[in-house]
């Protein structure tokens, strides 16, 4: 049985009429740039994230770049980030004029280690990017005080974690809520994905929100008037329309992903070779990815390929070992937990439309390899 890693066609079939109706409303009005759907989506994402402001932009990468640009980084200024994440996290730091300082992860959750962040702070540190990897929040209650104590911008990179939450002092706190700014990606593979690129920033800070709105529109609040040099980073109205049609389904989709994860957990927990992912206590994980650790990972990958089982390795080469960052002086052994993860992880299908029969095939292929 062929099982894709992600089946967006199956998702589309279930919501086709809603999505096409929303898109055609934009087409009929011909309001493709900053149409009313953009503002409506911003309001909905702000509400979901318990944030005062939400500002749409052209991509998840730009959602990271613009707040980093608002830091007005000077040459040599440092921004701390985990090395076990997608390239955009560090690429945005570099493109904003900063120096990425890579730190290690908690080997159980794949999320950044608060102790590693604290140890990496220097007089040149200006910000921290904490990534909520694979759909569960990092321990923000430990990281927010570090950022405040040192006067640092804290960016929550929640590209994979829209709608994820963490219970702190008896109350649910949302991904993106507690940092200086939270960032989301609407890349098609995300739990809330568009039909192209798109991103969103959320913040409680009124002044920062105003500046981010200017930065996404060539640095000005009014057309042809520019307070600074900004970017062309508007969220497309068609993408906003698609996302508004999908947003009411997000909670159910994420809950279904969590049910699939429990089924995988039941199959793999206690296995001598297969290590399922660990959910940090207090987290409500939305499982953008279900990532296991295994020995002989590359051989398992080849076997899954033979059986037609979709899979992916997130991430095969950590950021501190990327050729473009060689000048920063990291090498093998610099971040041992990160390197152990990149050598052993593999992600399995967990999309909401995954059938029981398909999941049985995935489980059988993995366990069969280690039989």
Structure description:
- By secondary structure, the chain is α/β, with parallel strands linked by helices.
- It has 2 domains: 8-104 and 111-248, Type I PLP-dependent aspartate aminotransferase-like (Major domain) (Aspartate Aminotransferase, domain 2), CATH 3.40.640.10; 249-369, Aspartate Aminotransferase, domain 1 (Alpha-Beta Complex).
- The chain has 12 helices and 12 strands.
- Strand 2, helix 4 and strand 3 form a beta-alpha-beta unit.
- Helix 2 crosses helix 8 (237-246).
- The two termini are 20 Å apart.
List its traits.
7-stranded mixed β-sheet; Aspartate Aminotransferase, domain 1; 12 strands; 3-stranded antiparallel β-sheet; alpha/beta; single chain; 371 residues
Number of helices: 12
CATH class of the largest domain: Alpha Beta
**What's the overall average pLDDT, rounded?**
97
The CATH topology name of the largest domain reads: Aspartate Aminotransferase, domain 2
Total strand count, please? 12
Radius of gyration: 21 Å
Distance between the termini: 20 Å
Percent in strands: 5-15%
Query: What structural class do helix, strand and pairing data support?
Result: alpha/beta
CATH architecture grouping of the largest domain: 3-Layer(aba) Sandwich
Largest β sheet strand count, sense and barrel closure: 7 strands, mixed
Helix fraction bin = 25-40%
Main β-sheet, spatial strand arrangement: 1-9-8-5-4-2-3
Superfamily (CATH H level) name of the largest domain: Type I PLP-dependent aspartate aminotransferase-like (Major domain)
Order of helices and strands: HHEHEHEHEHEEEEEHHHEEHHEH
Q: Please tell me the total number of domains.
A: 2
**Shape, principal axes of CA atoms:** globular
Low-pLDDT runs: none
